[in-house]
Amino acid sequence: MKKVYIPYFKDKLVTAMTEYRDNEIKSEAAISELGKRITLKVEDRDDLSRDILKSDMSGLSILKIDLALHPGTLGRYFTTLVGILDQVYEELTEKVFNTGDSGVADVDDRSEFQEFLKQVKNSEMPFTLILDDPLANSQNLYAPDPNMKIVTHERTWQQNEDLGLNDMNVESYSDNTKDGDTKTQRS
Questions:
Q1: Whether the bond into 144 is cis, omega within 30 of 0
Q2: Spatial contact of 138 and 58, defined as CB atoms under 8 Å apart
Q3: Residue 35: what are its φ and ψ, rounded to 5°?
Q4: pTM of full prediction above 0.85
Q5: Please, are residues 123 and 44 in contact by the beta-carbon 8 Å criterion?
Q6: Cβ proximity of 181 and 63 under 8 Å
Q7: Whether the Cβ atoms of residue 135 and residue 72 lie closer than 8 Å to each other
Q8: What are 55-111's pLDDT values in tens digits?
Q9: Do 121 and 89 contact (CB within 8 A), yes or no?
């Protein structure tokens, strides 16, 4: 495990387990007040070589091919954009599309979607990738970039609920003692 300082980024912890070909990135910073949405226009193969730090709570979508992955779907990665697209393709092909009984129409739809995803990851068609991260831990290492737009936004009530933030009291909270007296705890 290694703490990594990258200028203009939150503190990160990087762990590498080469035996299992896995790496893990964890934010070491406090929860952000605002979420972050990164919109990246991909126009050619060079755009796919961008390094991306995708947090586990980040949703990923490519509207052109109707791809929408909810937060937590892929986990967290530090990789290139093509690495993320390869992971999406592999996860969908091996774990989603090859399970269960399906009709002919489903198989045709899946094949068509897989073909669109192949075109996207091979940069055969321009597309826009959106990372919507309610904790603002996802980052693009090539900021500023004319093909990238970063917008901070307030989290929705549902995003706060999913993160367990709606009912969290971090101000002076109390603990009832056996005597019925209330003691205020401070951290």
A1: yes
A2: yes
A3: -85, 175
A4: no
A5: yes
A6: no
A7: no
A8: 888 888 998 888 888 887 777 777 888 888 888 888 887 766 665 555 444 667 778
A9: yes
Amino acid at 19: E
Distance CA 185, CA 187 (A): 7
CA 5, 144, 31, 132: dihedral to nearest 10 degrees? -130
Tokens of 54: 């995708």
Nearest partner of 29 among 13, 11, 47, judged by Cα: 11
Torsional class of 137: left (φ above 0), alpha (ψ -120 to 50), beta (otherwise):
alpha
Pick from 139, 152, 137, 119: nearest CA to 51: 139
Distance between CA atoms of residues 11 and 32, nearest Å: 13
The SS3 assignment for 128 reads strand
pLDDT band at 1, cuts 50/70/90?
Answer: low
Q: Which helix (H) or strand (E) holds 74?
A: none
Query: How many Å apart are CA 136 and CA 151, to the nearest integer?
Result: 10
H/E stretch holding 187 reads none
Question: What span, in angstroms and rounded, lies between the C-alpha atoms of 159 and 73?
Answer: 15
**CA–CA separation, 40 vs 130, rounded Å?**
6
Identify the H or E element spanning 116: helix 104-121
77 token code pair: 């990665």
H or E element that contains 120: helix 104-121
